[in-house]
Specification:
Elements (H helix, E strand, L loop, with lengths): L1 H28 L3 H80 L4 E10 L7 E4 L12 E3 L5 E8 L4 E5 L6 E6 L4 E6 L10 E4 L12 E4 L11 E10 L6 E7 L8 E7 L5
Antiparallel strand pairs: 1-2, 1-12, 2-5, 3-4, 3-12, 4-5, 6-7, 6-9, 7-8, 8-11, 9-10, 10-11
Helix pairs in contact: 1-2
Length: 280
């Protein structure tokens, strides 16, 4: 911008000088002679000086204003950078506080289950933007993870299971995934059933509780826990509650609709149970 002003200021003055020369040339050609030219110079000189001084003054003022603008712009850019850095530090601080809160809650849960071996992992990405059916974590076989490992929150609520695992990554299928199949216990009596993923229920963030023990009754608001069958998920992990009861075609068999205890969409960090005492 500064070089632009300088260049264009010089061009303007040059233009004015050229105009003066044109006037003098016209006088000479008209036969005015030396005296006429001197008179013409005197006539042209004062307006030319006035115009030149005015243009110079204007350019100088504009230069100062633009210089100040550039300086203020640079200061604003520096302030924006400082604000962005401060916000990043604040976010990092909030993340650290929230993680400490989660670890404190996990410590309480771990004291109740001293045989559990945990691996903490932050969620890197979700499988879809619409349904909370799966997500990826940056932990894998190098951290001791295996297919089928149980994934929970810091409060001991079931999230799902490790569905696929690589050296430094793993995909977790949540309990509303269509491929979910988890042994379950229902209510105080501990009637056995199966928690199954369902295409119709997945968009609603729910799962199906099917095949209850013969003679068992399902009730709304009953709590559902893991049964431990299959040996991959410990017994007694909280799954959720029965939010409604439906009948199969013909009305002979009932099944429950389970709403998870965990808000899957709000998850940031999860904990994988890598090992536990299978006799408990």
């Amino acid at each position: 911008m500064k070089s632009f002003l300088k260049k264009n200021g010089i061009k303007m003055i040059a233009f004015l000088l050229a105009a003066a020369l044109v006037v003098l040339a016209a006088v000479w050609l008209a036969g005015g002679g030396t005296e006429a030219i001197a008179g013409a110079l005197a006539a042209v000189r004062q307006p030319l000086v006035s115009v030149t001084e005015s243009v110079s003054s204007w350019l100088e003022g504009l230069y100062v204003r633009l210089y100040d603008y550039d300086r203020l712009q640079a200061e604003n850019d520096a302030l924006r950078t400082q604000i962005a850095d401060a916000q990043e530090i604040a976010r990092a601080g909030r993340d650290a506080v929230e993680e400490n809160t989660r670890l404190s809650a996990l410590r309480v849960f771990a004291e109740e289950h001293p045989d559990y071996v945990f691996e903490a992992a932050r969620i890197v990405s979700w499988g879809t933007e619409t349904w909370a059916d799966s997500f990826t974590i940056a932990k894998g076989t190098a951290d001791g993870l295996e297919d089928g490992d149980c994934v929970i929150t810091e409060d001991g609520l079931l999230v799902g299971q490790v569905a696929e695992v690589g050296e430094n990554w793993a995909t977790v299928a949540t309990l509303v995934d269509v491929d979910t199949s988890v042994g379950a216990l229902v209510g105080e009596d501990g009637a056995e059933a199966m928690l199954l993923g369902d295409y119709a229920l997945m968009p609603l963030g729910q799962a199906r509780l099917a095949y209850p023990t013969e003679g068992a009754q399902l009730f709304i608001e009953e709590s559902v826990y893991t049964s431990g069958s299959g040996g991959l998920i410990p017994r007694g992990i909280v799954i959720g509650t029965i939010s409604s009861i439906q009948a199969e075609a013909g009305g002979q068999t009932e099944y429950g609709i389970v709403t998870p205890a965990v808000d899957l969409g709000s998850l940031v960090q999860v904990f994988i149970i890598k090992d536990f005492d299978h006799e408990n």
